[in-house]
Amino acid sequence: QSALTQEASMSGTVGQKVTLSCTGNTNNIGSYAVGWHQQISHGAPKTVMLGNSLPSGIPDRFSGSKSGTTASLTISGLQPEDEADYYCSTWDYSLSAWVFGGGTRLTVL
Amino acid sequence: QVQLQESGPGLVKPSQTLSLTCTVSGDSISSNSGSYYWSWIRQPAGKGLEWIGRIYTSGGTNNNPTNYNPSLKSRVTISIDMSKNQFSLNLSSMTAADSAIYYCARGARFNGNYIFDYWGQGTLVTVSS
Which residues of A touch B119 (CB under 8 A)? Predict the structure, then answer.
């Protein structure tokens, strides 16, 4: 059971806008920024969002936001290469541990 | 460009201790330009990511506190060797349930919060006799 809850799967067509969510509580998302990590075909994770900031080299169709205890990753203009598993992560001060969501498998139709 | 690379045995016998090393290149592990949390994370086959623990660096200080996943705390030790720009993981009493891909990652400070920004490629560890 993950401390952060994500959709198990989502899908979209090329060019569509999709929003992935990550729900936690006041001990984690409510208190700290969230990272989003993309894992393509079980390769190494790659960070695509640092809170609401884009890492260098990540396309600006990716954006991040947070409201209360839920963080969101939005991909505007979905591309075939965006098909991947996406994980959210943040610190939890109650658990004294870094926590991850269970991951969302995004399929591009 | 910061790069992290894991190294260590791919096969460990049950009850043995796993020792992995993460070598950092492209920046000093104890950079004077900031403070970082260096973490180990694992992923069993077909499953999600699990944080193992972290060690903190800030400038050249020798004070490097650690935090560990409560579920693994009794078996985990993370240490750092600044002269080699490496940090290491020891996980004792290995069982088949510890078989996974092990990643190292850097947690950097963004707007007051630490977030994983760079990851290693991962190394597969199998526990079997």
Answer: 37, 44-47
